[in-house]
Design goal:
The structure is a homodimer of 215-residue chains.
Chain A lengths: L3 E3 L2 H13 L4 H8 L3 H13 L3 E4 L3 E4 L8 H5 L4 H4 L5 E3 L4 H11 L3 E5 L5 E6 H9 L14 E2 L12 H10 L4 E9 L5 E10 H12 L2
Helix pairs in contact in A: 1-3, 2-3
């Protein structure tokens, strides 16, 4: 279990002083803050017991740089794709480019996942892919979306149990707007097949940040 | 100053027990955890001094629901647009739709800001706007981007000092991918003019979450 607690202003100041001047005695910290040693005792207790500071007899307080400070990452790492994902928007691979664009507007989505005849993930098309196509000479009413899609195995995917942090990293590094959330099956010829169970988007991530901020 | 510290596993368990059974004495908590009262003392000290628990003589520990638990929002609220924003991609309003699309691909951006003759913000076009246009009959080589852009004052903007949390809210609620970051000037006729100084995108927000998770 991870919970986060907030340091008060004085605890923050103590931390700054120890970072700068440590090792430093409690008396010296008290002097710098113009308070009594006794008044500082609870704050110093919180800081040592929570792993921010080390207290050594006859030496004083030192800052533990490998301590538990700012472990917001542990909190963030609790979130999984299943906690934030949306419904997937899919089309069949015979769908025309024009119909794919219409689907994109109707569903108000950024990317569309393309399924093969058996209903497994075969490709993905983004707004960018579609926009590029409309600049060319292709007859978008006739050409199927499968001609322009990014195909498996070149698709970055996620699973429901992936950490949001890891998925965010994938989205940022591969410069995509969303990832299909998939379940993997092994086919009769030992090939991997992916059932699409959702999508995880930059909007889902932005919403998570908003949820965390408004708790 | 806000810093966050992490509770250890036992402190988490104590919190759960007090939430469920409080008011409860230290002895009873120790029994439930099968440890001595003395062993619990440091943990109970952290929890009371950090504002999670209240300790009343002859009554026991109670949970402070209005305490400082989970104040991740305070940390998030420290971040401003200037901490995460990117460079703006701009075109003049006489720019053709075709050239705007080319700029979008060259700069690899989602939205383009359109400037008036004086260089102030006048409009915005998104990938979605451009894609919609290419479906129509317009000659994208001739029609200027100003014909299809969203115009001031219908543009949602941000400033460098806006909180990331507030800007994230705007982006999610208005279902846009990015906001122009602007500086406001008062023109000679008392009209407001906006200089574009950057853009803030869902990618910037995703990167912030990643930075926080990897600290």
């Amino acid at each position: 279990m991870v919970n986060l607690i907030e340091l008060n202003e004085r605890q923050g100041k103590i931390l700054d002083i120890v970072k700068k001047h440590g090792p430093i005695t409690g008396e010296n910290i008290a002097e710098m803050l113009d308070v009594t040693r006794a008044a500082l005792r609870p704050d110093l207790a919180v800081l040592t017991m929570s792993g921010y500071l080390d207290a050594k007899p006859r030496v004083g307080y030192t800052y533990k740089s490998d301590g538990m400070a700012n472990k917001i990452d542990k909190l963030l790492r609790q979130y999984r794709v299943k906690d934030i994902m949306s419904m997937a928007v899919v089309v069949k691979e015979k769908c025309s480019i024009y119909d794919a664009i219409v689907t994109l507007f109707v569903e108000d989505t950024g990317s569309i996942f393309v399924l093969d005849n058996e209903g497994y993930l075969n490709g993905i098309v983004s707004r960018k892919d579609l926009l590029k196509t409309t600049l060319g000479q292709a007859d978008i009413h006739k050409v199927p979306v499968s001609v322009i899609m990014t195909r498996m195995p070149n698709i970055i995917t996620a699973t429901v149990d992936d950490m949001v942090v890891e998925v965010t990293k994938k989205i940022v590094e591969h410069e995509v707007d969303s990832l299909p959330v998939v379940k993997c099956f092994i086919g009769t010829n030992n090939e991997e097949k992916y059932e699409v169970v959702g999508r995880v988007t930059k909007t889902n991530i932005a919403r998570l940040l908003l949820d965390l901020a408004c708790k």
